Amino acid sequence: MKTTHLSSRRHVTIPKTICDAYHLAIGQELEIESTPQGILLKPKKIMQHTSIEAIAGCLAYQGAAKSIEEMDEAIQQGNCR
């Protein structure tokens, strides 16, 4: 088991062997979670860049396209369906 310490600025150093094993890069964001077993650190998942064309199939709207004016009016009314 590896050990580390908490600095006066509440920083923790992760040993290089652990960083290498989990492919952690300098500056990478980590999520921290309190669990019944203790503290869990895990790499923050990075969303991959994509285009609207790649995800357009998940948009379920059926019908005629709305105009900008119709969309603005729905937003003002709080009716975004």
Structure overview:
The protein has a two-stranded antiparallel sheet with strand order 1-2. It has 81 residues and is of the alpha+beta class. A hairpin with a 2-residue loop joins strand 1 and strand 2. 25% of the residues lie in helices and 15% in strands. The radius of gyration is 23 Å and the shape is elongated. It starts with 15 loop residues before the first helix and ends with a helix. The longest helix is centred in the last third of the chain and has 10 residues. It comes from Methylovulum psychrotolerans. InterPro entries: SpoVT-AbrB_dom, SpoVT-AbrB_sf. GO terms for molecular function: DNA binding.
Provide a quick synopsis of the model:
With 81 residues, the protein is an alpha+beta fold. The chain contains three helices and two strands.
Detail the topology: elements first, then pairings.
Elements lengths: L15 H6 L8 E6 L2 E6 L8 H4 L12 H10 L4
Antiparallel strand pairs: 1-2
Q: How many helices does DSSP assign?
A: 3
What gross morphology would you assign? elongated
* Average pLDDT over all residues: 86
Broad structural category: alpha+beta
- The proportion of residues in beta strands is 5-15%
The helix/strand order is HEEHH
Instruction: Report Rg.
Output: 23 Å
Number of E strands: 2
Helix content: 10-25%
Largest sheet, in brief, is: 2 strands, antiparallel
Question: Roughly how many Å apart are the termini?
Answer: 54 Å
Name the strands of the widest sheet in spatial order: 1-2
Query: Runs with pLDDT <50, length 5+?
Result: none
